[in-house]
Fold this sequence. Notes:
Blueprint: E1 23-26, H1 31-39, E2 43-46, H2 52-61, E3 65-68, H3 71-75, E4 81-83, H4 89-99, E5 118-122, H5 123-126, H6 132-137, E6 140-144, E7 150-151, H7 156-168
Parallel strand pairs: 1-2, 1-3, 3-4
Antiparallel strand pairs: 5-6, 6-7
Bound molecules: zinc ion (ZN).
Amino acid sequence: xxxxxxxxxxxxxxxxxxxxxxxxxxxxxxxxxxxxxxxxxxxxxxxxxxxxxxxxxxxxxxxxxxxxxxxxxxxxxxxxxxxxxxxxxxxxxxxxxxxxxxxxxxxxxxxxxxxxxxxxxxxxxxxxxxxxxxxxxxxxxxxxxxxxxxxxxxxxxxxxxxxxxxxxxx
Length: 170
Ligand SMILES: [Zn+2]
């Protein structure tokens, strides 16, 4: 939950957003894409349920670009939406990265589960949370400012780098 400090801007209202930074709202068909965009460093809300009107309202009030697989939603008047023309999450990511010229910056990664910002933590900060073996093998960790999940560059990191590289390729 938010506590009002500068370093907790998990839901990233547009007033706190850096100049030119893109923020998205993904519809219920695009949950995995939303997770990848967060890893990519993009402030991305995911709407599991709710009608087109809700999505349109949030998009407008928070200046978020709608990502959707719904052609009707794209046609809706006055809405800033992008039709994601693929069903494969990794290819969807590539399309969005190219359409909006997104760059990957590791220090901007967000929590794939909740969109919270991640903060670097030292071993001693997470020793009570992370299993001993993991603690021994890693020096730095990331903690979500919103949900408290802890991440580290384990075996899945290679896979993340692959997906990121693929998304950035032509
Ligand atoms: Zn989180």
